Amino acid sequence: MPTNFTVVPVEAQGEERGPPERDGRRQQEAEEDEEKECGAGDGIARESSPFINNADMDRGNLYEGKNMALFEEEMDSNPMVSSLLNKLANYTNLTQGVVEHEADEDSKRKEVKVPRMGTFIGVYLPCLQNILGVILFLRLTWIVGTAGVLESFIIVFMCCACTMLTAISMSAIATNGVVPAGGSYYMISRSLGPEFGGAVGLCFYLGTTFAGAMYILGTIEILLTYISPSAAIFKAEEVGEETEAMLNNMRVYGTCIIILMAIVVFVGVKYVNKLALVFLACVILSIIAIYAGVIKTAFDPPDFPICLVGNRTLSKRNFHVCAKYTESNNETKTTRLWRLFCDSSLLNATCDDYFALNNVTEIQGIPGITSGVLIDNLWSAYSEKGSIVEKKGQPSVAGSEDTKAGGLPYVFTDIMTYFTMLVGIYFPSVTGIMAGSNRSGDLKDAQKSIPTGTILAIATTSFIYLSCIVLFGACIEGVILRDKFGEAVNGNLVVGTLAWPSPWVIVIGSFFSTCGAGLQSLTGAPRLLQAIARDGIVPFIQVFGHGKANGEPTWALLLTAGICEIGILIASLDSVAPILSMFFLMCYMFVNLACAVQTLLRTPNWRPRFKYYHWTLSFLGMSLCLALMFICSWYYALIAMLIAGCIYKYIEYRGAEKEWGDGIRGLSLNAARYALLRVEDGQPHTKNWRPQVLVLLNLDSEQLVKHPRLLSFTSQLKAGKGLTIVGSVLQGSYLDKCAETQKAEENVKALMGIEKTKGFCQIVVSPSCRDGISHLIQSAGLGGMKHNTVLMAWPQSWKQTENYFSWKNFVDTVRETTAAQQALLVAKNIDLFPTNQERFTDGNIDVWWIVHDGGMLMLLPFLLRQHKVWRKCKMRIFTVAQMDDNSIQMKKDLQMFLYHLRLNAEVEVVEMFENDISAFTYEKTLVMEQRSQMLKQMQLSKNEREREAQLIHDRNTASHSAPAVKASVAAAVPEKVQMTWTKEKLVAEKHKNKETNLSAFKDIFNIKPNQSNVRRMHTAVKLNGVVLNKSQHAQLVLLNMPGPPKNRKGDENYMEFLEVLTEGLDRVLLVRGSGREVITIYS
Q1: Rounded to a whole number, what is the distance in angstroms from the first to the last CA of the chain?
Q2: What phi and psi values does residue 50 have, to the nearest 5 degrees?
Q3: Of 305-314, 725-734, 1054-1063, which range is least confident?
Q4: Which residues lie across from 290 on neighbouring strands?
């Protein structure tokens, strides 16, 4: 944008601007357009929402810039309010089955016309259909008879309360922003993160798919048991083969039906919706018929007699007359029932004991609502598998214990029944609450439709279920209720016997109900899988994100049909139901958790339109879901959790990194804040101390790390535990170095990933490296999570003249870590240190313990040997004994000390005797001091030149009125000074400089070494000789690092002492403790 411009009146703007200015302005605008199309800006991906100005915005709206010129430079990122409101007014939810608005980058794509549904058709009807499916018609009467009215009421109330609480949580999440395709998966993933979202989403997809199989199995059971038993392909040839034949029939018919349903769904969702209306009409008529039948029983109960022998219920499939014999024309004839229990039709035939001892009686199966049968049905009647259904309170005489009931026409229980098993079978009937939210991409306004439709559907169906339990118990005889397949009433559907005007109303209604629920499952499940696939968080299912041109999930539909076929091959409705319960309950549990977490975190973006929620309700719903999972089946619950856990870890390990602002990230931040405030109080106890490392890296001109092995050593030392901060300093101004800082940070983070260094990166820009390092040492970390150890590389080129400041910075860093009471580790010859891939098969880690500084020297080898690189190295500890020390006692004491520290190491005491200072030491000290003096002279002469140039420049600036001054100073810079000299002044200055330099160098060669420096050099030379003798071939040598001199004039000598001390060693780690104990013998 132009920096200089002229403000002109609006009326005159056409005349005032000249052609050149207009052309220049147009060219600049064209360049800006090009920059925007290329994605210029901060490089951060923008959400494709109405609140952010997209790159394809019409530039015509960006006014030629007069009335709002003050803001014109920000218009590329901050749109005008008028354009914002215009985009917001035209904003609509995404088409079904496409990636949600966050990831939709192709904003110019052609809009696809798809069906858009409201609350009633889009949410209420699918939920109603799925809830009022198989269980109501096929299993509810059996549950009431087995568990009794009271326990059945508890079962249904628990399940309905669970779904209602989940619906409240779901409503809060659904109204907290736009919910595109994916429904429940979208809500969980955006609230709890991609790992939870993917794991629970895939489990819920499997549950929904198997639910489709369950509905289809229910459809076939109604068809072959109640509508047309003769349509069965496989017939039972012998007694006991009925069950196997039925399962085979289900497999054949189920495969055919699933193919038909898949074709219907493939043709289009609108046809499913049209069929849904027809199917639901049948369901509603069936329910009305039940209520009408209940009312009719009050004054005219239907005639459905039940035949009993004693108190045992008989199956009326093989006889019609409920009597042992009949009399006609004064002649007694045995009935077909007699022939079923006796070995012949004669009156003196041998009959079953129980049959012979008990009378055959006939009672009404549906005595009516006023009969008082409710009292008998209040309590449970659980039984073992293969038990005979018996009427309570009916007189009977027990027969012989040895008599087998197999093959006799009794009504038997097909499975063992108990309370928790009934919960598992019943719960799938309330799992339809997500049917609407799964198709949220097809809704006009998902925020409004999902809460309203779902809660209304749950309220409606809960009333139907709870009232039906009471009405069934009040109208139908208990033995009929416990008769799962209606064998005692001529094979009629039990609930159908109650209906008015005909049982066929219920049979046909339930058949279409289960068909419709199966279609709804096959419609919702593929869209759920497509939403997960298009998110890209689970790599191996991405192929299922593709579909037809209008977004229909073709590949996902094929997979769904294939998984449905697996459920159909199982062929047992009662076996599939508890598995579905696990997957659905897990999904509902996480929906409640998501709502509770978001509410408790109080994130600014949590602003649901649905206000009738509270975190306590969500926690209650979550607890109820978890309890129901283990009530239904503890081993199924563990298996479902294991599957979800495996998917979670897979997504965490292989899935794409996604940042969705989810609640788990927010929870982590809150937990981190809480933990930081807790550890703020003081220093950790010695037992909890571990090195929290600040690694100081050097970068080259390309912002690449000079010594990558420093990070390798860090990961070997830390093994992923504790705090690691990797810091570096760029010299200059932050405004100028912003791009370089970002590049340096990316390079360092990439190297940290390669070296598996878990930690944080911090790049500081400072006018000088010295200040930058000081800032890092002082301010890196946060609260109690601050570093206590600094790790850096030895400056190898410190002796070079151009690197004068490198050793100054190093010595000052040593002083600052001491002042900050931080430990310091200096790695010498860092490029010879091993990488993380290397393995030492033998060798030693040698510790030279000269002075005690808190035990760092003992702790570091122990930590290193935890890593694979150093694991096979042995630890050796050397300590130095003086003339007055008892070396034998020292060794015993050190061994005992190590025993109490629980460290395994070889111990050796090295004796260093007093001897004369060698000529070599004297000469080395002399050379060191001469070099230091020479460096000072060179630096002094350089400083003098700089000061003289600055002085002349200042004088000339002050007297700028004289014209001759402008010619006298050409330039004045610190490194190179150019001035106008006269010939005489030049010759005099040369002679002066020459004499000064000669006298200075004469002083250098005449100096005598300082006695203190000689003694220090003597110690360094002697100690180096001892270390080389013992540890020259060690894999790593750890040494106490002596502190710098208090007199700053001897800093360069300090570097020389350290160089001599470590000369000839391959890998050296100089250790300077923080002054506090870091290792203890106490537990």
Answers
A1: 68
A2: -70, -10
A3: 1054-1063
A4: none
Query: Which amino acid, residue 158?
Result: M
CB proximity list for 783: less than 8 A, separation 6 or greater: 676, 677, 679, 680
Helix, strand, or coil here: 313?
A: strand
CA distance 579 to 577: 5
Which residues 6+ apart lie within 8 Å of 530 measured at CB?
97, 181, 544, 545, 547, 553, 556
Reported confidence tier of residue 663, pLDDT bands at 50, 70, 90: low
Q: Which of 425-429, 452-456, 502-506, 913-917 has the lowest mean pLDDT?
A: 913-917
Question: Mean of the per-residue pLDDT values for the chain?
Answer: 77
Distance CA(419)–CA(755), nearest Å, equals: 56
> Which spans in 780-918 are helix H?
804-819, 856-864, 887-900
162 touches 625 (CB < 8 A): yes
Are 1015 and 1050 within 8 A, CB to CB? no
Alpha-carbon distance of 446 to 436, in angstroms, equals 9
**What gap in Å lies between CA 578 and CA 574, rounded to an integer?**
7
Report residue 852 CA to chain centroid gap.
46
- 530 CB burial (10 A radius; 0-12, 13-18, 19+): buried
- Whether 154 has a pLDDT exceeding 90, the answer reads yes
C-alpha pair distances (Å), 306 with each of 293, 780, 1051: 19, 85, 109
DSSP 860: H
Confidence of residue 1004 (pLDDT cuts 50, 70, 90): very low
Residue ranges of the alpha helices (H) in 413-542?
419-426, 446-475, 478-481, 494-498, 503-535
Sign of CA dihedral 1016, 1021, 1024, 1029: negative
* DSSP helix/strand/coil, 325: strand
Other beta carbons within 10 Å of 661: 12
Task: Summarize pLDDT for 367-416 with one digit per residue, the tens.
Answer: 888 888 899 899 998 988 888 888 888 888 876 654 556 678 888 888 88
Taking residues 636-663, what's their average pLDDT? Answer: 78
Say what the pLDDT of residue 54 is.
45
CA 392-393-395 angle, to 5 degrees, is: 115
Query: How far apart, in whole angstroms, are the C-alpha atoms of residue 724 and residue 760?
Result: 6
User: How far is it, in rounded angstroms, from Cα 751 to Cα 393?
Assistant: 81
- Predicted confidence at residue 70, as pLDDT, reads 66
Cα(1059)–Cα(924) distance, rounded to whole angstroms?
A: 12
Q: How many CB atoms lie within 10 A of CB 702?
A: 9
Q: Which residues pair with 222 in a beta bridge?
A: none
Residue 685, CB half-sphere, CA atoms under 13 Å: how many? 5
pTM: 0.68
Give, for 115, the enclosing helix (H) or strand (E): none
- Return the SS3 of 364: strand
Strand pairing category for 823-828 and 789-793: parallel
